[in-house]
Amino acid sequence: MSKVKKILAVVLSMAMIMGMSITSFAADKATITIKNAGENATFQYVQVIKANPAKSPTGWEFTSSDIEGYYKAAFNDSDAQSVIKKLIDSTKGEGNYANAIKTALDSVLQNETLSTAVVSPIEVSEAGVYAIKGTETGYNYSSMAAYVSFDYNVDGSQNGVTNTSVEAKRVPTTVTKNADDKDKVVSVGRSEGFTIDGVVPYIPATDENKFYAFRDTITGATYDVEKEGTNAGKLAVKVTVGTEPEKTYYADVNGNSFVLNLISLINADNSNANQSITLKYNATVTDVHVHNEVIVGDGTSDGTPIYGSDSSDLYTGKITLTKKGEGTTVLANAGFNVTKGSDAALLKFTQDKDKNDADIAGSYTYDPNGEVTEIFTKADGTVVINGLDVGIYHFTEKTAPEGYSVNTKPADATLEVTGNDGVATGIIDATTSMADTKLSSLPSTGGIGTTIFTIGGCAIMIIAAFLYFRSRKKEQ
User: Is domain 172-313 in CATH 3.40.30.10, yes or no?
Assistant: First the structure.
């Protein structure tokens, strides 16, 4: 019986020790709760400051020399303890270090190895400062810092770490860029409308470097700038915020890009924050493929690299006609006029050129201001026309190759978008062909054929005359 009691005592002691250990372990963990985070947000973190009461005047030190370097550079201070002192002062509302802190945090989160992605709350085991990066589809998060302090016993001795929280600052990044043409196929020379939809971000009033602008870049088209007046050379951009009336702004165009500064929409009380915003403008297509992209923000506001970005593409169509002779023969130098649909007006083209600005045989691009109305096949019997919109095109032969007759029946080709819900994802194309008939061989004028007929005719006339005079002579 005594042995059983001893065993029970040992088991009970072990249970008590384990219970105490569990309590102690629990006290060594703390959580960082991210407030205002989205349901699908994840977070990565790295500790930047740790406790060192024995060796540091402030009782704290940076966790690595690299991180220490980021903070020294941001604060323009060569002494690490001096930087930490400024960080402590900032928590008391002393000193204006908001921008330096943001710069340091951005550098840390961009360059240091971070933890694996976790959801809030974040669990840590050491007191100190943690840099936190938030990620969520459709949103940008400001760089965050959380301070985890020590927990203390009644007698003032340290007892693990305490839970804390940090307020997340996030702004929507939902920006969409679209051309107004639904099937995304246009012709060269056409003025096309473009639309940008987004959300006005929330930018704290305390941010000293507020920036809210749309940077738009386009290739394969030119902006339809104002031709005259006080805004000549500028692009008219129509802007609608929420339910407010549409307002026209004028943006400076630099090459194939413009920047529209809308910082005026970020007012002190942020009354426009989270309101929808729509921008509209026009550009004229100049090439067979148009690429257009927009980026909102430049990274100086609230630690946000951008407030959203998107791109849109437009395409044109091309048609290849092959001119054929007998059998497998292909014919060069066949000339055609081209019309579209029921319109009898001849389409105009420009001759395509290579990188050395030399004409490319058999290749043309539609140009409403072009000078070419008759296009010609090259040595392989083909002619290609580019820069076309969807529709039915008619090729009418005007010049036949040497030795062939003109085919009076036009060849047709249809450009259309198939698949992908009727939206083009690249240049669309179509093919057609036309055959010519070889001319028949005829006798040469004044050749042997004419001579035979002449001699025969003369012989008949002589015989007829001989018979006539002989008959008269017998009558007499």
Answer: no
